[in-house]
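hey team, just a heads up i'm posting the complex here instead of the shared drive bc the drive is being weird again. everything in one block, sequence lines first with there labels, then the predicted structure for the whole assembly after. its two chains so it's a bit long, scroll down
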Amino acid sequence: MILVLVCLGLVALFLAGSPVFAILGAIALYGFASHGIDPSTVIIELYRLTREPVFLAIPLFTFAGYMLAESKAPQRLVALAQALIGWLPGGVAIVVLASCAVFTAFTGGSGITIVALGGLVFPILRAEGYSEKFSLGLVTSSGSMGLLFPPSLPIILYGTLSGTSIDALFRAGIVPGTLLIVAVALLGVRQGARMPRHKFDAGVAMRAIRAAGWEIPLPFVVIGGIYAGWFTANEAAAVTAFYTFLVETVIRREVSLRKGIPHVMTESMMLVGAVLMILAVAMGLSGLLIDQEVPQRLFALLQSAGATRWVFLIALNVFLLLVGMVMEIFSALVVVPLIVPVAKQYGIDPVHLGIIFLANLELAYVLPPTGLNVFLASSRFRKPILEVGRAALPFILILALGTLVITYVPALSLLFVEH
Amino acid sequence: MKPLLVLDHWIEKVAVGAIVLLLSVMILLAFGQVLMRNIFHSAFPGVDVLLRHLVLWVGYFGAIIATGHRRHLRIEVVELVLSERARVVCAVIANLFAAAICIVLLRAAISFVHLERAETTTTMIGLPAWVFAIVVPVGYAAIGFRFIVRAVEIVAGSPEVRRNAMAGPGETRVL
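-- predicted structure starts here --
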């Protein structure tokens, strides 16, 4: 009875707009108290984060991403993509997808892509002759593309919460991440086939390459370095943070040392802080869940209900889409410690599970009426939420198809992962 | 109300200063460590552990600032359908609830630091290791305080202050 009241109260507080960390913290504290465990255990669990090697990559990558967003790198990125792949049929749509994917990978899927790049690429699409509906749908769905590529912050958080190797997760994301982009790009090609094609201009391409010369090495260092095994995620983060700092302040002088740097540092650490607050209580909560053998009980319950592996995966898809729709990725990842042990019992590889998580959350971002991207696109382009949702529908369908394939064909994720 | 706001303001200033200082140190140290490891095949001893503790420091200072800018992650869908009055009530309750949880976490963090102090013997850059754990109670204290100040602003502030203290939809999630 008391438990029911507490649950109802927390739901009400959650809906009233209480921070996610306070709700989760209340659950963790209540759980510890009702089992007679000292509340300082919550802090002990959170302090374990200081023993996670990859913990350091979180602030460094976030800082680098905000640094790039603050400079003129987004403009250079779009210009470069346009010069290099704009001549393909549907080229401009592919340009939008590719630039958004790179940008989201570097800024961690907090919705910055739509805000920073949306206003830049939407007019380009319209000027090319793409319909307003198509352009709106494409920009809305592009905002979460790239979550599966390094140095995506949600992947790092999944790895931390599940105890899975980050490097393996990054390698696992290559094929599924590319699959989703290619699937959406096909929609663009179909639209673009009706439009006049651009010619490839070597002069323009050279100028764009030269203009973006300092940023071009970054994806290669990060993505290539991690895939090839030259760098750990941590080392890539250290190099990226130092390099972007040097390039955008000293070499390009687009971010000033006196004003720009404190601004970028505070903005990026606000996100890190907000995520850390959730991660901190999530560590305590996961310790409690494992201590009380909740995953085992959940597995037993599922088994007695006759749930096979396929039923479990379908339920997982639906569950993740719902969670991802009402919360953003960072809060949604809180369920990781609960799900990973259950999935293991069903014989699902934790690395594959990570990719399933991210793919579903990527899709959930685009789902109306409460997906984050729908929300942001609606306010950014001043369009009603339902109109954005309708525009995104073809993209949602194709992303859903891709997510199903990723979920039920583990080989796609495990192709480049050694065991 | 004035002294509360002044203190709130100073907390933010200190947090911003600390972030700029600590994050700069972290970027340099982390890069230096990569150079050491890949060129000289050695590493500064203890730096990796120090860096991971500093993540906690910049994280808590970031969270302190985030409290003043309504950047803590939460859902804001329900707000869209509420009347102005109901939104005010919800915002006050949400802020006070968050403050209450921070106070409980603060107590837990204080007893954690006491435990660490009794147990640890290791040192980092010449300081006993438990000193680095102090950011946890300090963080929860400052965050809890700032949530209370937000609630006070909503109840007693001018319309403009109140509007600032209440997050509009979408604002908390992005730059």
